User: Fold this.
Amino acid sequence: MTYCVGILVEQGLVMMADTRTNAGLDNVATFRKLHVFEKPGQKLFSLCTAGNLAVTQSIVSHLREGMKDPETKKIERLIDMSTMFEAAQFVGKAIRKVFEIDGSALEQHASSFDVTMLLGGQIKGEPMRLFMLYKAGNFIEATQDTCFLQIGEHKYGKPILDRAVQYGTDMYDALKLGLISMDSTMRSNLGVGLPVDLIVQSRDSLGFDVRRRIEAGEPYFHDLRERWSAALRQAHQAIPKPPYGTGGA
Assistant:
């Protein structure tokens, strides 16, 4: 299991992913699920992956090393795409390519072809965009009305984002809310865990404002967890008790 989230606000983009993978309680490991594709000053893409680790790693390798175009016979890579829409189409093409190679074998061994991805970023002269791709290679795009997308174990973090994130939200408030949603997910699902990789990218900067990995014991994240827990306790204590039962209305 995993949890990844992308938040596209007016000021820019926040993307983050946990790193925990497990194949049983005694086989837990750490693998990067937030991948960066960059042509300095020209293009900057971030890709979050969820699902079968062997499948997602194969897809990322195709995106980095390239695939042959059937018409031109040229090798094309993700970083060669000229628009964000083309980039999303290319990721979908890589997903279908890996399915052609491995899909039937996975099914024969009772293993599913399970993959979802988030692709966000910007190309110089183009708008910043955020997409979510499915295992069929099709995709949807974040909008001003729905400005965040999640993959993996998303149900625990979604209520926080639903209540608080809007397109006009400050970019660093979006980062804070994303981290709260990540903490809430980790609290409720042991399949999601630290370290957490994250990026913050200002619109039109074509570079990172923040690119870091949050490890266990990181001071800000530890403080955020404690403050959020305390705030929830104070909030529920401040709400009047229900007027039900003995002595109720």
Q: What stands out?
A: The chain has a mean pLDDT of 95.
